[in-house]
Protein 1
Amino acid sequence: MKAVHRAGAALLSLSLLVACAGFGGPSKQELILGAWQAEFQGQDMTLVYGEEDITVPEFGMTFHYEWVDEDHIRLDALGQEVVTRVEFESDDRMVQTSGEGRQVMERVR
């Protein structure tokens, strides 16, 4: 009888581990997609992140970016290449840090 209980407990534990692994949440590559409100040098703007491009509607500009690894993107803005660390404090708050400084962005809903 004890063996049956142990086997059942082991099976239950394994099932819970498999179920939890499926709920890891979205990746940074998924979270970054969408519109973000930011302030650059005192000016508010919206940055719309697609899978490979960032559009700034206020200026009618689009910049290419790519993921370098799971935490960094490389942005090509007007011929200047910048590598930025991307972190999410929540699904609606993104922080990007580079040699240029730290930028906090809020998701536009």
Protein 2
Amino acid sequence: MIETPPDTTKQSFDFTAFMREELADKVLIKLPTVFGIDFSITKDVLMMLIAAVIIIVFCHLAMRRPKLIPLPTSLQNILETMAEFLENDVAKPFLGEQTHRFMPFLLTAFLFILVNNLMGVIPGATKATANISVTAGLAGITFVVVQISGIRQHGLVGYLRHIVPPGVPMLLLPIMIPVELLGMLTKPFALAIRLFANMTAGHIVIAAFIGLIFLLQSWAVAPFAILGAVGVNLLEILIAFIQAYIFTLLSAVFIGLAIQENH
């Protein structure tokens, strides 16, 4: 009996390798490592640099010739609308009279996250916020701002004294102090994971739809896969705004908790 040789015209599709390739942060320009820090320009670093340039140019054009009553479609009106929304609905409820003091940080964080999120919708581009290192860095900046704000408001001793809620019995202090310190550290951790998970999820779903074409090795599923990917991509635009808003809102909440009088 003559055995039929295996059909090698169709190569097996490694879906795991495909997803790993899609989510990988590729090095574009290799630079030397200084003091253990790799200064190479990766795709995510490039996206963040482009986002920073976009924000700088946008703010410069918006406020280059400010008008008392800007046109509804002008860049100044768009920027002022976002700033007013963040001030009245995000910052003021938690920061009160100190809202203006923290508005530059909150507006910058909102714009930076929003622009990076939206850039991931562009074909061929990536979302830097889908990189845990990036979101951890953003959360780390918020953590530093929270601690510095609390220390400036209450003094170092006063801030450390109020880590544990007042009125806690002395016998419970050995338990409460580690618990409160752990809670202090979980706040930036939650910020980083929340943004990273939501931005990565959309990218994975889109890549999964496209990967179906190669996994099933049939162009018959291509229209459905492409329509699904386009639908998720449009949904990603809404998610980009929501996640930038949530990160900014939680940052304002954490700062407010650190500076409030009964902290």
